[in-house]
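stuck on this:

***
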Amino acid sequence: MKNSIYLLVALLGMAPCFQANAQNKSIKTVSGQKINVSVLESKITHIMDSIQLPGLSIAIINDAKIAYHHKFGVSNLKTKEGVTSKSIFEGASLSKPLFAYFVMKMVEEQNIDLDQPIYDFLKDIFPENAVAENSLAAYKTLTPRIVLSHGTGIPNWVKGEPIQIAFAPGTDFSYSGEAYQHLGAALGTKLGIGWGSKLDSLFLEKVAHPIGMKHSFYTWNEVLEKHTVKGHMNGKVNMEMHRDKKVGPGYSLQSDAYDYALFLIEMMKPKNLSVSLRDEMLKEHNHFKADNEIHLETGQTGWGMGFAQKPTPNGLMHLHTGNNHDFQAYAMFVPEQEYGFVIFGNSNNLFTFLTEIEKLIEEQF
């Protein structure tokens, strides 16, 4: 099995799928070092070959423009189908920053208030016993600002159990996809459209299409059925897909590196959102305590409304990881350098790729 996968990647998976726009002959790293594209692609193919990464979508931003974008590898190791320029990947938790931007757009249009409790919109549809009795009072204080900056005290996922809130909301950090789901439901209910395809259509109208994102969706459709690649776990194809009928703000985004890079550029130089609201989104709203595990492991210092933050010698990095296991993704940008980096992969070893590619293009995480 190992040899067959190795041969498949070597023969079929390494031909890059070129974006239609012209590519630069070199790219700049976040510190300004120039890397020849041929050297970059040789490194990419070598890493993919060595770790048996099936498929990859990668984009690099220089001077607030997409300087490089390619797709490599295969969509499905079993069928040997290669990725194409239209291939789409699961974005996993990269769903969250983009949904946070969507919320900010709704704030701009006065459709929701960052500091109004989301319970105001959910109370009439709230399932009985969804929140533990001893946590209901705290739940009723949750606002979009607290949810987007992971200050709710709600676990990442509760898996059908009554929600237990671990601390007074807004006083500490607890990463929570579950809380993002509740915010999505509150937004859709407030707008009177629910949180299914109508909410996704509004996202496309207000966010994706104005930014230029043509291959990004939160709910399943015919485009995704045709172009979404298959996920892989330890070299084996996972034929089960996330065909979500509801918007999953915490996990259900389907996209690629090119589209997401356009979003990062919008964060650097907003044209579809006011600068003041962009600044509010990127401002630190939840500062990590000294003993926070993420801070100790990565050097990240806190969270804005959507992105984590990490001070670096080149400026403040805004970043987010994504992990649906058989799909993984990562995005970062440093506004001071007008630099950004995005990768989407269809397997559970993308972060090994990230570690290896950093040896050429400097630290990205």
About this structure: The chain is about 35% helix and 20% strand.
